[in-house]
Amino acid sequence: MEGVRGWRRRETVHQVTDARPSLSEDIGRRERNYLIKMGIRLVCLVLAFTVPAPMAIKILLFAGAIFLPYIAVVGANAPRGGAPADPGFTDPGQNEIPRHRREIGS
């Protein structure tokens, strides 16, 4: 009986901690991150116009107000959980249409 166990493949055991967060949790996290970055941008913009500071600090505040929207949008649109951006991407050597991409009648 010992020899029989040796050739069997071990079953993959999935744990709950390995699962990706739900879509609603992921969207909520993205929205919070976006709103935090936009809040920081607003603070930078207000401080750049109202605080009597040296020009170097004002330039840093303006740079934050200019570049934070780009960083926030890119972060909010990043694929969830490291998944590829295009789930329909096919391998160049693929000979068959993937099952989820088949059309009616094919």
UniProtKB/TrEMBL annotation:
It holds the Pfam family DUF3099. The keyword Transmembrane helix applies. InterPro entries: DUF3099 (IPR021449). The chain crosses the membrane at residues 34-53. It comes from the Bacteria. Keywords: Membrane, Transmembrane, Transmembrane helix. Residues 1-22, 82-106 are annotated as: Disordered. This is Membrane protein. It comes from Planomonospora sphaerica. The lineage of its organism: Bacteria, Bacillati, Actinomycetota, Actinomycetes, Streptosporangiales.
